[in-house]
Design brief:
Helix content: over 70%
Number of domains: 1
Oligomer: single chain
Largest sheet: none
Radius of gyration: 21 Å
Number of strands: 0
Strand content: under 5%
Shape: globular
Number of helices: 16
Order of helices and strands: HHHHHHHHHHHHHHHH
């Protein structure tokens, strides 16, 4: 079966809209894993919620590696589809899965070996460490069930199919919602597993995505080559995938380090602050998932149109994306203005945790539109063969802006958590402006080059 490029014709706005909507539900369902886990774990106690928060950097690291490699695979597959090379599509899909398995196995081995030093360095107290171990018991081996579907979903989206990945993620999200209270608190004959039940529920739900994703990519879409590749084939594919995927993956490795520093800063204000930061971050990710959905469409859209040489469609898609980011960001500011306290009270009944969550959601919502613009621009830069620039923008936001500003605000100005949260907003605004300028210059350069040719 030949995979048809779906983004080369038709209204740009309608294509982006009708392909983003399914992904909002799909990625929202995927992000709901952490939100639902956080909701139920918060019922166990503040230490349990803090324990989950300390796992954030590790969680982001593995997911980031998978997303980075997935971005590389999606960029190359979408361009191959735009050129009409179906055999290359199959080979790239197969080789990206092999690469992801090798890389994730390496990182999981590191987690097993350096488990205690990692979480001690993050600032986990002795009373929290046993809870972290309980949660990670099923989380670590479950990463194989996370990474493979992520890579496959990127390949499926590269052909312009957003509905299938969305339905798969939605099914898994619903399963996680149903299993969480059963396994955490014990119901229907199942023993109460506490915080370990949350990670087991996630593992079982992601096994659903694993089985369905492999079936779809191989049986329905015929996008997966099943023969054993030669080393020359693998090296050629990996070189192409890593050209985009390596900078993105490197960013994903560096980003958890930045998050670790932030958690370390927050931990100096006590377990309640860590618990509140963790819970509020999960809510924030749900709001941000709309931009993740749009970015998952804009990447293949730009990739297919780069392959076909349609520069005007790329420019139009980015203009619409930026307007969408502003509109959604404004909506979230208004929403959290009225609902931040209600959301926080739903998550936890500890007044100190509630107050910090309200503070975080109220301040950080201001940065959402700017983070959306940056996410759209960096996704486009990956596909436009500027992956290093894209990665530098993301890393700069954390290490050159956010962390120095947070240290200055807390250590020099003594602004406490206010300073940390406002540092996030200021860094997001600056990077969104810089990314906007760079992506427009990149497109103008490609346009001028095509005119000369």
């Amino acid at each position: 079966m030949k995979n048809k490029a779906r983004y080369l014709e038709g209204s740009v706005g309608k294509l982006l809209l009708f392909n983003t909507i399914p992904m909002i539900f799909g990625i929202g369902a995927a992000m709901s894993f952490t939100f639902v886990d956080t909701y139920w774990v918060a019922k166990i106690g503040t230490n349990a919620l803090a324990a989950m928060t300390f796992t954030f950097p590790v969680d982001f690291l593995v997911m980031g590696v998978a997303f980075g490699l997935g971005n590389g695979a999606s960029a190359e597959i979408s361009k191959a589809i735009g050129k009409g090379d179906n055999e290359l599509v199959k080979r790239l899909t197969r080789d990206s899965l092999i690469l992801a398995l090798f890389v994730v196995t390496f990182f999981i081995a590191l987690f097993y070996i350096f488990f205690t030093p990692i979480f001690t360095m993050l600032g986990a107290k002795p009373e929290v460490m046993p809870l972290i171990k309980e949660f990670m018991k099923y989380w670590i081996p479950g990463q194989f069930a996370l990474v493979i579907p992520l890579i496959i979903n990127n390949a499926t989206r590269a052909i312009g199919d957003t509905k299938t990945p969305s339905m798969i993620m939605l099914a898994a999200g619903i399963m996680n919602v149903l299993l969480d209270p059963v396994l955490i608190f014990g119901m229907g004959g199942f023993p109460a597993m506490g915080i370990a039940g949350a990670s087991l529920a996630t593992l079982l739900a992601r096994m659903v995505t694993l089985v369905l994703s492999i079936y779809i990519i191989h049986k329905r879409d015929k996008m997966l080559a099943v023969n054993i590749p030669s080393w020359s084939e693998l090296s050629e594919s990996w070189k192409a995938i890593l050209k985009v995927g390596l900078p993105s993956t490197a960013t994903s490795i560096v980003m958890p380090l930045g998050i670790s520093v932030v958690i370390r800063l927050v931990s100096s204000y006590g377990s309640s602050a860590v618990a509140a930061f963790g819970a509020a971050s999960r809510v924030d990710i749900i709001a941000l998932s709309v931009f993740m959905a749009f970015s998952s469409v804009i990447g293949p859209f730009v990739g297919q149109n780069v392959g076909a040489g349609n520069i005007d469609r790329i420019k139009q898609s980015l203009r619409l994306g930026h307007l969408f980011a502003i509109a959604w960001g404004f909506f979230i500011i208004v929403l959290f203005l009225f609902t931040a306290r209600h959301i926080s009270m739903m998550m936890r009944d500890d007044l100190s945790v509630i107050n910090i969550m309200v503070l975080y959601l109220s301040i950080n919502s201001i940065s959402l539109a700017f983070r959306g613009i940056s996410m759209i621009n960096t996704t486009a830069l990956n596909v436009l063969q500027k992956p290093v620039t894209s990665s530098l923008l993301t890393v700069s936001q954390i290490f050159l802006l956010f962390i120095p500003l947070a240290f200055f605000a807390t250590k020099i100005l003594n602004l406490g958590l206010y300073g940390i949260f406002w540092a996030s907003v200021i860094s997001a605004i600056i990077v969104s402006i810089v990314s906007f300028v760079i992506v427009n210059k990149t497109i103008i350069g490609i346009e001028m080059k095509s005119i000369k040719i």
